[in-house]
Amino acid sequence: MSLSWSVPELLQHRQEGFGFHEEVVLPLELFRADPEVRNLSPVDVKGVVEFSKRSLTFHLQISGIMVLPCAISLEDVDYPFAISTSETFLLNGTEDSDLEKGEFVHEIEDEQIDLVPSLVEAILVEKPMRVVSERVRTEKLSGNGWELVTDEMAARQIDPRLEKLKKFFND
What we know:
Oligomer: single chain
Number of strands: 10
Number of domains: 1
Largest sheet: 6 strands, mixed
Structural class: alpha+beta
Distance between the termini: 78 Å
Radius of gyration: 25 Å
Order of helices and strands: EHEEEEEEEHHEEHH
């Protein structure tokens, strides 16, 4: 089963409610907007639909693992994510003015609701600005003429240009 339904199909479940639990493989082409997403595990999606006169609201729990580049070494880092989100779709005949200000909604096209674009958007919004691999955190990185300095090390280190001034303050 995919994450796409027709509106009449969903409305048949109005009385008893509608819930789903799917594992979805999202192709990397959908993440072209952010090339830092190097890979994505199958995404676990749980959801329930809330029915109202004007709209259908999907309450979603999304989880999986995305592979991102380390901000320091550029090696692959597995970044697990768990997202809770809601997506509201307007039923035909509902005006935007009927909704409360600040409420974001989607229009339904061709009587079909597809959640895949909403999943991609939610994952991209939750992607961190940067990740650092565990190896970089534990190892001391250095190379020819350079070494990685942490904030703590930088605070303790004295600028070599000011080293001679240190003796004036020790007296």
